[in-house]
Amino acid sequence: MVAVKDADFSKVDAVFCCLPHGTTQEIIASLPSSLKVVDLSADFRLRDVKEYEEWYNRPHGAVGLQKEAIYGLTELHREAVATARLVANPGCYPTSVQLPLVPLLEAKLISTEGIIIDAKSGVSGAGRSAKESNLYTEISEGMNAYGIAKHRHVPEIEQELSAASSCAVKVSFTPHLIPMSRGMQSTIYVQILQGVSVDDLHEHLSKRFQDEEFVIVLPKGVIPHTRNVRGSNYCHLNVFEDRITGRAIIISVIDNLVKGASGQAVQNMNLMMNYDESTGLLQQPMFP
Amino acid sequence: MVAVKDADFSKVDAVFCCLPHGTTQEIIASLPSSLKVVDLSADFRLRDVKEYEEWYNRPHGAVGLQKEAIYGLTELHREAVATARLVANPGCYPTSVQLPLVPLLEAKLISTEGIIIDAKSGVSGAGRSAKESNLYTEISEGMNAYGIAKHRHVPEIEQELSAASSCAVKVSFTPHLIPMSRGMQSTIYVQILQGVSVDDLHEHLSKRFQDEEFVIVLPKGVIPHTRNVRGSNYCHLNVFEDRITGRAIIISVIDNLVKGASGQAVQNMNLMMNYDESTGLLQQPMFP
Amino acid sequence: MVAVKDADFSKVDAVFCCLPHGTTQEIIASLPSSLKVVDLSADFRLRDVKEYEEWYNRPHGAVGLQKEAIYGLTELHREAVATARLVANPGCYPTSVQLPLVPLLEAKLISTEGIIIDAKSGVSGAGRSAKESNLYTEISEGMNAYGIAKHRHVPEIEQELSAASSCAVKVSFTPHLIPMSRGMQSTIYVQILQGVSVDDLHEHLSKRFQDEEFVIVLPKGVIPHTRNVRGSNYCHLNVFEDRITGRAIIISVIDNLVKGASGQAVQNMNLMMNYDESTGLLQQPMFP
Amino acid sequence: MVAVKDADFSKVDAVFCCLPHGTTQEIIASLPSSLKVVDLSADFRLRDVKEYEEWYNRPHGAVGLQKEAIYGLTELHREAVATARLVANPGCYPTSVQLPLVPLLEAKLISTEGIIIDAKSGVSGAGRSAKESNLYTEISEGMNAYGIAKHRHVPEIEQELSAASSCAVKVSFTPHLIPMSRGMQSTIYVQILQGVSVDDLHEHLSKRFQDEEFVIVLPKGVIPHTRNVRGSNYCHLNVFEDRITGRAIIISVIDNLVKGASGQAVQNMNLMMNYDESTGLLQQPMFP
């Protein structure tokens, strides 16, 4: 890689920044301000600098830039992304969670209280660094929860759900490590507001995403499977009636490496550069 | 296999009945009443015959015997099992759920309302029959929920939690199929009652199971992993503080084929026959 | 599927025939002779009708058509495929084996005697039918040989190697089932002819395939991995020096479902229809 | 771990030495000579010190002790092990290869020339160190050969096959990494000597191992599966007729962590200490 400081950006319109969390604030601050940037790290996702410093345990390195950063969950912030200079590409868990919850909270169909997110991820979510805990022999044929109640995607989720509902939302979020390379599922337990039915939730989400290329609300009763989005930029969603009256179960699946990371980054860049939004993203899911 | 009708039971003290759900009521009814029986099917688990007929969609074939059947979750019903003639061996999900919840409900430490169980199982839970949905190519590298809000283990769980709390408990129960052969985890979200702390829950469970061979409450903060009980009769448990005040997250892992099935059946038989309870069950977990 | 007998083929130029072995001879014989056909079954792969009947244990149902069938290993028979009316698409193992061996035998660089093929395949090679032997719980975390010395791909391999070397070649062929959905490797042990070196083999294969889109001879010393061709139409090849003087080890990897089946069928159809040969086949390998 | 230099061995009869290759020569040399030792590293496996230094690329640190070391493939060297002071526990591949080949070479039933060993191993064979190449995402759903013609188990195999046949044997040995945690298979291609049949090989091996607890020659035609020895100290063997006249295919499976490592070490220690040879080793294979 060419060192950033020596790079000639004079003929470059836009860059992806795929560097580790905690390193991109300084780097992006040093780039020409004419350059459009999609940052795949967590460095610009949290609008509140104090919250950033608390969860990431380090000072923020580009406080001035933070205000400019647009949170790039494409389907929820398309207009802002299209004109953005700097996009903070969302985390994988937050993408899978916000796609169903933000529209339901905005429409005041579900309660802001008692939202429980039981999330499951393939191992590539942990990156490619050589740690004992990610060895084949540790992962294969077993599973476990991790980061219970303190995963760094929590403040990102709460920031966006709070914005959608105009009140401070706190969620229960428990991620699990599943023996598969790719794939992510969020199983979300919510309380429906008085007078609202599960069918209403399904109808609302269906309408909200009816013109979207990459977010598919499945027909009633059809259960999303991670294998049906593997290797693709799709999110599959559905809503189910719970046994406990007044509760619903929402299931959302994505490929954590595509819609949950690089695919959504490309989607954002397409918007920022005024390309067709699906350019380079029409690779179909691979099964088996 | 010797046909049951032709078998000579004169020199037999006890039998395991490992036949499909829906076939053991008639068979066990035809056995000599002196014979001790552990039934691994679901045929005698539900005390309410009507509920059985509703969930299993068939008439009960041995209503008289049903009253005699003892629900065999060993650690919770040891005395009754020891003197039982007929034991209904519990389902795998119900075993993993009841071990932490029954003591907490009995002690009135958690609410009977809003209990949410997000359960995950390896593929052997679906048995060995040749179905497309259980092929390697369908299961590997993907996951999905199934039987949402209508899995047949729900009435079994609700029956026992209701008995423990002396009121009608309804639970949210969502099982998931995980790409592994063995292993089961229940992630359980509960509301703590006023004045009770997560430490209180941990202490209560630790005391309740301190003399048990097979139920291990892990030290505070240690996350149970299914791989640590693989191939063994152990259940590993722990309780965690949630972000939302007043809520706790309970994690319980077992090997669905051992403590969740045949291991617990052997444990019950050992009790019924007055053998040492751990006879034949000391195989250690296999890792990797 | 529209029944073949009722189908209107008047506006169709070509068809893929993806039906089970033993059913396509009659069907293809009943099609209009103007229609171009790529048959993915084994029905037309063996030129010798008697050999077909012996290995497949049934009479040949379209002896007349057999003469017309072109064996469609694209890189080895491109001209014949381009003008063919009926193409017999090769088996997966034979594809991985012939790509390196046919050029070396044609150039008389290796011995026709003592060729040993130790082959490994992912489970999708066994199809999607619901058999106990293909269940996740049977396959995961274990492996085994099968069809030792009597796999039906043997006569197909020997037919083509014999044609390439103008003498009757017999091979040792042992396939193994590996716990993975896709991917195939043939590890091939050969004797080099007098005066020939392993470098000569590498150079010959490199030249032979230098203009090919889908067959890549790796640089000296680089070991092919099935994961590097997963989901793609590529074949990766290399040749290695053995410890025993005068012997070489050839490794060839493909995705059994793409270059080993449907991908090669598309490649053949592209040629027959005068489309660009790589149309629809440029999907890149998926990793992880 | 207590540092070796400070340890009090006065009440110890025997030790296992489970330290990395290249570290045990010095350590064992420093132990009291009354202590019985089973060394699981490769440090004492090669009788020829020069060969050790060439393959392991370091000077031998205990040349004097080397002469004393007994190569501990239990079934083949039981008497020497029983009276040994220092046992060099064999490698996993060499164990799977020698169990069938040594008796056949000793009985002069197969040729010493052209022995081809295509070996497959689960990932635990690579140990538990945190290397990128052993991550779940690198290993799952793919396979590859490695160490072609230069794996360090080659000199160990050749040393023992040469001793068994009283002539210098060279083998072709190609190991492969398979996506499974445990399990090892050697598929071995041999030439049968004139006048000998495959049935003779099967009969000879069956007789040779008929009284062995842990080496099972399967009935004719039954293919060994690694899953049938998983977690156990068993080796399953069989011999098959090849298509090429005069050749046979031998398949040998073990669990690389048990019979291929610690299980065989315990078996050797049992012999050295005059315990029952199967003490601690009767854990049955785990399936699934």
Automatic annotation (TrEMBL), chains A, B, C, D:
Biological process per Gene Ontology, one example term: L-arginine biosynthetic process
Keywords: Amino-acid biosynthesis, Arginine biosynthesis, NADP, Oxidoreductase
Active-site residues annotated for this sequence: C92
Biological or metabolic pathway of the protein: Amino-acid biosynthesis; L-arginine biosynthesis; N(2)-acetyl-L-ornithine from L-glutamate: step 3/4
Reactions listed under catalytic activity: N-acetyl-L-glutamate 5-semialdehyde + phosphate + NADP(+) = N-acetyl-L-glutamyl 5-phosphate + NADPH + H(+)
Keyword Amino-acid biosynthesis applies: yes
Entry's EC annotation: 1.2.1.38
Pfam families: Semialdhyde_dh (PF01118), Semialdhyde_dhC_1 (PF22698)
Domain Semialdehyde dehydrogenase NAD-binding: 2-84
Xref: InterPro entries: AGPR, AGPR_AS, AGPR_dimerisation_dom, AGPR_type-1, NAD(P)-bd_dom_sf, Semialdehyde_DH_NAD-bd
GO MF annotations, alphabetized: N-acetyl-gamma-glutamyl-phosphate reductase activity; NAD binding; NADP+ binding
Stated family: Belongs to the NAGSA dehydrogenase family. Type 1 subfamily.
Protein name: Probable N-acetyl-gamma-glutamyl-phosphate reductase, chloroplastic
Organism in which the protein naturally occurs: Ceratopteris richardii (Triangle waterfern)
